[in-house]
Design goal:
Elements (H helix, E strand, L loop, with lengths): L1 E6 L1 H4 L8 H16 L3 E6 L2 H8 L9 H25 L4 E7 L2 H4 L1 H16 L2 E7 L13 H11 L4 E6 L19 E2 L21 H13 L3 E6 L5 H7 L7 E3 L2
Bound molecules: glutamic acid.
Length: about 250
């Protein structure tokens, strides 16, 4: 199976904003195992801005939001990819960085070029690690968030499944903080779930459940199963792939 796995900022960062290397390392272990089981993997990772922000805590000047995003992502992306390279190296797995912008999905020349880059990486057993190029993305032309990017990458690479890892178990049928609420396990095409979508957003990333569910609906419509699950749970990727029926998650079936 070809899998696109999106790892959110909140999965990769600790409460103080620093990169959670233990979590990252556990996810890399699982991805290495899934590869050994024959799956082809594409990673879409967030965490650049969050990790740059924690690295540059001493910066107190009044930078505007664009300057901040550019500065933090430039520093944070270098740190993030460096970690991935080192963690995958322990398994002898090669990874490569793909930084992209929204224009690369609309203009057909750019699109073809990007598609080709990911294809040649996969053919040569290199795991593409994709993120938005936040250093040069223009505010008006940014992806809504990396959920949107992951849906586009899953479609571009004709993935069988898109797994969106966040810090929540899935889509609840009520307030996630209410202990009577349950995670909706399966969402069939055409089912209206708008009443269940919480608008609250988590702290580190740009996305939220609203954007996850609309990306999931769109991507499932394009023929790709989408799973939303909690990336902070131990062994989540292995359980999703090998024992999904007994793993808490929300699956949008296509
Ligand atoms: N591209 C951003 C980063 O790596 C994350 C965007 C998002 O939160 O979805 O920091």
């Amino acid at each position: 199976m070809r899998l696109t796995i999106k790892i959110g900022s909140n999965v990769l960062t600790r409460a103080d904003g620093s990169l959670d290397i233990t979590r990252m390392s556990a996810l890399v272990d699982q991805i290495a195992q899934l590869r050994a089981e024959g799956h082809e993997i594409i990673i879409v990772t967030s965490g650049a801005v969050a990790s740059g922000r924690s690295e540059l805590k001493h910066i107190t000047s009044d930078l505007d939001s664009v300057d901040k995003r550019q500065l933090f992502s430039a520093v944070g992306q270098a740190k993030l990819i460096n970690r991935y390279v080192n963690l995958f190296r322990d398994y002898g797995i090669k990874v490569g960085q793909v930084l992209t912008t929204k224009e690369h999905f609309s203009d057909s020349e750019h699109r073809k070029n990007q598609e080709n880059c990911i294809r040649v990486m996969l053919e040569n057993e290199v795991i593409p690690i994709v993120n938005e190029n936040d250093t040069i993305s223009i505010t008006e032309l940014m992806f809504t968030d990396n959920d949107e990017l992951s849906g586009l990458i899953a479609q571009m690479t004709k993935s069988d499944t898109l797994i969106i890892l966040s810090n929540i178990d899935g889509i609840y049928d009520g307030d996630p903080n209410d202990k009577n609420s349950k995670v909706i396990r399966t969402i069939e095409p055409g089912r209206d779930i708008s009443e269940y979508i919480q608008t609250a957003k988590s702290s580190a990333g740009r996305g939220g459940m609203q954007s996850k569910s609309s990306v999931a609906e769109r991507t499932a419509k394009a023929g790709i199963n989408v799973v939303i699950a909690n990336g902070k749970k131990d062994n989540i990727l292995i359980s999703l792939m090998n024992n999904r029926a007994n793993t808490i998650c929300t699956e949008f079936v296509c």
